[in-house]
Each structure stands twice: as structure tokens, then as C-alpha cells.
Amino acid sequence: MTSTAAQLAVRTPKRPRPPARYQRRDRPGIWFVVPFLVAFVLFTIAPLGYAIYSSLYTSRLIGGTVFSGAANYTQMFSTGQFWAGVIRVIIFGAIQIPVMLALAFFFATVFDLGVAKFGRLFRTIFFIPFAVPAVVATVMWAFLLEPQFGPFTHFANAVGAHGVDFFSSGLMLPSIIVIAIWEWTGYNMVILYTALRSVPRDVVEAAILDHAPLWRIILRVKLPMVRPAIVLLIFLNSIGALQLFVEPLILSYYQPQAISYAYTPTLYIYNAAIGSGEYNLAAAAAVVLGFVIVVISVGSLVFRRRRGELA
Questions:
Q1: Per residue in 17-64, pLDDT tens?
Q2: What pTM was computed for the model?
Q3: CB atoms within 10 A of CB 136
Q4: Cα(168)–Cα(257) distance, rounded to whole angstroms?
Q5: Which domains does the chain have, with CATH numbers?
Q6: Over the stretch 91-150, which tens digit does the pLDDT of each residue have?
């Protein structure tokens, strides 16, 4: 047994170490990663850690800052306004995301098939709303939807819908949905258009040779092949819906009665910290919102990996 092991040891060559020049060549790659890691720690990990730390304390006029444990979380979850804001962004996302992705896929398909002339020009025009700052876009739409002098109000009166107030409590959320769709459809359209351009042409040509109608080529050939991009956009837009902030904040100056203190979770955080000075309570709400976003992000990665979309 000893001689056999010795023979195997002699026969099995040792793996040579890579030359020192290759090891030195790989070291500069670390310096390309270090700036990102530093920025990630300073602007993501450190603020999140400080928010968790602040959420466990309570600042009082008498007694200073004292440790309160989960008191801020209990107060936040027991607030009916906070849950109303959560339900509101869920409704917002349930309506805005499907409508926006349907419009984005429709226009992306039109441009991919070459149906529209001057496709490059129109793609640029459709993408411009995404380049417009959200504050500017909201102010612009506020003038368009203004209850007295807005053109949409005059159009509603012209077709017989008198007394329509787009800034009322019942129509404020649909108005915000329209603004968000206008802002983000072009961005999603570009991503879906890029995914459609990657569909193998031979598959489409085979469907054409089989005399498949256009609608079947779109729904049975192109749509399944861009499904990974659609799934990715669903998760990304869901995270964006949870962060709805600018549009309700700007519109609250036009109609304060229709935008409550906690109209959205982010608006609740803003008003608690800036408006009421309850920084610890706002930190607790921010931690919860950040945790939900992390769960959605991790769920997206797990879901896509199980479907084989990620290596």
C-alpha cells in the first residue's frame, strides 16, 4: 500500500502556481471595484445603519434622547394613516404598472416591426418625458389639469362632463397615475424595444412563412421571448411605486385637502421628519420601507434565477 501511494504521488504532477506576473496583473482590477464599494458603504450601508440606530431611540423635550426599543415601530404600525398610504401605493402600482407596460410593449412592437415611419425620431420623442424632471412634469400636468382654467377641464366641460375636478379626493390618485404613466412609458418602451430587437429573425421569418397573422407573431412569438425583460420591469416599477413621492408632494400645494399627511409611505416619512420633527419615527418608517424594497429585490433575483433567466 505504501509503495502504491508513493507511485501515485510520483505520477500525479502538482499544479504549478501561476507566474508572479499574472498575479500582479490581476491586482489592479481591485482598484476598479474599490470606488464603488466605498460609495456603496458611505451612501447606502452607513445611512441605513444610522436609520436603524435612530429608530431605536426617541428624542424628548425633557429628558433628551432615550432608548425606546420598538416603540417607534409600534407607533408607526398602529397609525391608520400609514396603512392607508400603503394601500394607496398598492392600488397605484396595480393600475399604473400593467397599463404602462401594455402601452410600452405596444409602441415597442410598432417600432420593432417598422410600421411607423421615422421610427428613430418617434422613439426619441417617446423617451423625452423620462428626461424631464419629475418636479417639472408634475407642475406641467398641474396646469393641464387645473380645475378652473386647465385645458383638460375645458375639454371635459365640452363633452358634457361639467364640474370635473381632477384634484378632488376621488380623482387625485387617477391624476397621479396618468402623470406617472406619461413619465415612465418611454423608459420602459426603450427597454422592451431593445429586448425585441434581440429576438432571432429566423424565428419571426419562420412564422411569416407559416402565414401566421401579425397578432399571433406578436403574442405567440415575440411576447414569450421578451418575458424576462417584462418580469424585470414589473419588479423595478413595483419598487418605484413604493417610492412615490414627488407627484403627490407637488400636487399637495395645489389641493392640500386631497393629499393627506401620509398619502404615501415616503410622504409619511417626509412629513414626520420635516413637518413634525419626529426624526426617530421617520427613521423607523424608512427602515421598514427599505426592508420591503430589499425583500422585493431579493425576491426578484430568486424568481428570475429559478426561471433560468440568471446564471
A1: 655 555 555 567 778 888 889 999 999 889 889 999 999 998 877 767
A2: 0.82
A3: 10
A4: 8
A5: 78-306 (1.10.3720.10)
A6: 999 999 999 999 999 899 888 877 667 778 888 888 899 999 999 999 999 999 988 888
Which residue's C-alpha cell is 474599490? 34
Per-residue cell: 245: 413621492
Q: Which residue has the cell 397621479?
A: 176
